[in-house]
Design goal:
alpha+beta; Beta-galactosidase, Chain A, domain 5; 3 domains; 12-stranded antiparallel sheet; 9-stranded mixed sheet; 26 strands; globular
């Protein structure tokens, strides 16, 4: 639809023969990314971009640098930050603010949105000596109610994709300027970022940009066209370093802009706001950039969408219908990937607890709580904000949720925030702190059903009675590590391309959306999908002749209904010992069978006692029963991460397939983390181990990623007349190596001793 009351040009007094081009570059590295990745991005993109740009004194641009990247630059490359400050002082660079650690704003509470934005704006204003007028919208994920929060945080403008505006009914010719949007009487300026420029820069020759802009200038004198996209396209994305710098694309681009100064003026966003009135008022539907809305669709629907799009493109009808087609809703990534919902719910737990303890206002700046050491709460808030970094919470053309180190970083920061809050309450981790244990029940994963939390000052477990009685989070608090930050294998739309085989891009600098590159051979043969979520305390009944290879490949029959069936929960509390008891009356084939499993934790303990009792087994018949554990964040293929026996003898790296018989012990050691995981049983057990690996998509192509290691004790049970069988296992989590190392580092002054 059209908005006839919104003029396409301004009044004669405002008209100008000049088209204003706004260039906004967004540089970001996620919390938890490897230091070498930061350094490589600096060398390949951030630094060489400035090397070229500094020569063009008449071209102002705007730059957003995420807080996680800015902190790294300030610590590791302070000379780069000094160069930015000099450009700001010369009036050549506008610093664009944003939420400190690049969260999806619709995912976090209002208090945290405002807190993240204002904290980062204050940091930037102090460092660069300039007001911060605008903010970068992470992944351009938008909901109209954000307007109120952004204005309350001091934001004057933001930039979204033109796709958002087209979803509101605007046509291409109505997008050459900026609009005012409103919520609860609060007004915010919003620029539509050009998708055409996003695909042209830097993948097409600069003349194509000029050929796109010149007709706009002729039709709409005084128009404003905005470009906003990732700075990593200029050197980090495959092939772009050579294209942009060695082959001189960026220099040609800036030269072309200078050569067209008679009609093309490059301005900053604030200059555009000050020089040109808004085109009108608009209310913007929820959404993100076009590709993101597609990725958010369920896989089956995404496959249908892609097929329909290709058919309509072949028929020459896609451009006709595209303005009326929308993809999915960003929040449904938490449905598509339940593991991201677990992180989200855990983040909300920490945020609520911090808010309850602190008593701060919604701006996150008043430290008026009841504790003498408010600095602990301030540190906890910073850790919470880091744990809200968006990259591990979704997946598209980048690794995202499929990258274990990003998920681990989320949990590391959230667990550390909890540790700091405990320290603020006098319940720390140290040997002199009081040992404690808690057992509580609530809807911790926000699914409308109660889960159970079993916690001490050393460990924290979350269990889902409605879903198989699974243990779905296991926090080892001294090292801030969730051993169950797993990811199940599921079908992705791009797996069709994996099955189709590798093909070269059309040109060396094709967009990552068009690349089909394999980082390992035969990935099509590694595609496998899980029947259930890869967590722990997963209860199986197998045939007696099933093999390790069959179970690892998923080629087996499940004879029981306990894997995902609901359990009833009973909570048993003693002052220094808490137990969760889970019971299910299910079936083994046609036979009714009851499983009761108990998870017990003592105050200050580093071990869980795991007891199983099976009732109703067929007397005298052999039954094959197993309990599956998955352990995440313990990488495979590295010599200092290995299985071992009770004598400490290595049994192979953590990606090794083991088929052990009649043992009562298996250990897993990660020397880098400084943890030893020990599983012991009072009944001799057979143990299978095998890795869980996904075939996923990243900037560089398709790759195999280690997600977790399965440790699967199983028994061949012949019950007596009473049909009963029981065993008790101990899961011990020893972090003494990490704590000794940390104590040594503290003595040398290398780490903080705040906790």
């Amino acid at each position: 639809m059209k908005f006839p009351d919104m003029p396409l040009t301004h009044s004669p007094t405002d008209m100008s023969p000049t088209l204003r081009l706004v260039l906004v570059f967004h540089n970001h590295q996620p919390v938890g990314n490897f230091d070498g990745v930061f350094e490589q991005a600096y060398r390949d993109s951030y630094c060489p971009f400035l090397d070229v740009f500094e020569e063009y004194e008449d071209l102002p641009i705007a730059l957003h640098t995420s807080g996680s990247l800015m902190e790294w630059l300030a610590a590791r490359r302070p000379e780069y930050v000094d160069r930015l400050a000099a450009l700001v002082a010369a009036g050549r660079l506008e610093i664009v603010g944003g939420a400190y650690y690049e969260p999806i704003l619709t995912m976090i509470p209002r208090r945290d949105r405002i807190g993240q934005i204002t904290r980062y704006a204050e940091w930037l204003a102090d460092r660069f000596g300039t007001p911060i007028n605008g903010m970068w919208m992470p992944e351009r994920v938008w909901e109209q109610s954000l307007t109120n929060d952004l204005v309350d945080a001091g934001v004057r403008y933001t930039l979204l994709d033109d796709f958002h505006f087209k979803n509101a009914g605007l046509d291409e010719d109505q997008l050459h300027g900026y609009y005012i949007t409103e919520d609860d009487t609060k007004l915010l300026a919003v620029f539509p970022g050009s998708e055409k420029l996003r695909y042209a820069i830097p993948f097409r020759e600069p003349e194509e940009t000029i050929n796109y802009l010149r007709p706009i200038a002729e039709r709409q004198p005084g128009a404003v066209v905005a470009f906003g996209d990732d700075g990593e396209k200029f050197g980090v994305w495959p092939g772009t370093k050579e294209h942009v710098y060695e082959n001189g694309w960026l220099r040609r681009f800036f030269d072309t802009l200078v050569a067209n100064r008679s009609w093309l003026s490059v301005v900053t966003p604030t200059e555009a706001l000050d020089q040109v009135p808004p085109l009108g008022k608009i209310y913007i539907p929820e959404g993100s950039y076009r590709e993101m809305t597609e990725w958010a669709l369920p896989t089956a629907h995404l496959n249908e969408f892609v097929q329909l799009k290709h058919r309509l493109e072949h028929e020459g009808r896609w451009q006709e219908v595209a303005p009326f087609i929308r993809g999915g809703y960003w929040r449904n990534f938490k449905v598509k990937y339940p593991e991201t919902n677990e992180m989200y719910a855990r983040m909300q737990m920490v945020s609520r607890r911090l808010n309850d303890l602190d008593g701060a206002g919604s701006n996150g700046k008043r430290w008026t709580g009841r504790f003498s050491d408010q600095s602990l709460l301030d540190q906890a808030r910073a850790e919470l904000y880091r744990g809200q970094c968006n990259c591990g919470y979704w997946h598209g053309a980048f690794g995202g949720a499929y990258l274990p180190h990003l998920r681990n970083a989320v949990y590391q920061n959230l667990i550390n925030a909890d540790n700091l809050l405990d320290a603020a309450e006098g319940r720390g981790l140290g040997e002199t702190d009081r040992a404690w244990v808690e057992l509580t029940s609530d809807d911790y994963n926000l699914d409308g059903r109660p889960e159970v939390r079993l916690a001490s000052n050393r460990l924290m477990a979350l269990v889902s009675p409605p879903y198989g009685g699974h243990l779905y989070e296991l926090d080892v608090r001294p090292i801030c590590h969730n051993l169950l930050a797993t990811l199940s294998r599921r079908e992705e739309a791009y797996h069709e391309a994996v099955r189709g085989g590798e093909k070269a891009p059309v040109d060396d600098v094709a967009s990552i959306h068009d690349r089909v590159v394999f980082k390992q051979a035969n990935l099509d043969q590694r595609l496998q999908y899980d029947r259930y979520r890869r967590k722990s305390l997963v209860d199986h009944f197998y045939s007696n002749d099933v093999s390790l290879d069959s179970v690892a490949a998923g080629n087996y029959q499940e004879f029981g209904d306990f894997v995902t069936g609901p359990f009833e929960a009973k909570l048993r509390r003693n002052p220094d010992r808490m137990q969760l008891q889970l019971t299910r009356d299910g079936r083994l084939g046609d036979r009714p069978v009851r499983i009761t499993k108990g998870l017990t934790l003592e105050a200050g303990g580093e071990s869980f006692e795991i007891a199983y009792r099976l009732e109703g087994l067929p007397p005298g018949e052999c039954v094959h029963f197993g309990v599956e554990f998955n352990f995440a964040g313990l990488p495979a293929g590295i010599d200092d991460r290995y299985f071992h026996d009770a004598r400490g003898q290595s049994l192979g790296q953590l990606g090794t397939r083991l088929d052990l018989a009649n043992t009562d012990y298996l250990g897993l050691t990660d020397e880098w983390l400084g943890i030893d995981v020990e599983l012991q049983s009072d009944q001799p057990m057979h143990v299978w181990t095998f890795p869980i690996e996904t075939v996923s998509q990243s900037e560089a192509g398709f790759e195999l990623v280690h997600q977790s290691v399965v440790v699967h004790p199983h028994w061949y049970i012949t019950a007596g007349r009473d049909g009963r069988w029981s065993t008790t296992m101990t899961l011990n989590l020893d972090t003494s190596a990490a704590e000794k190392r940390r104590a040594s580092e503290r003595k040398r002054g290398r780490v903080s001793s705040s906790i």
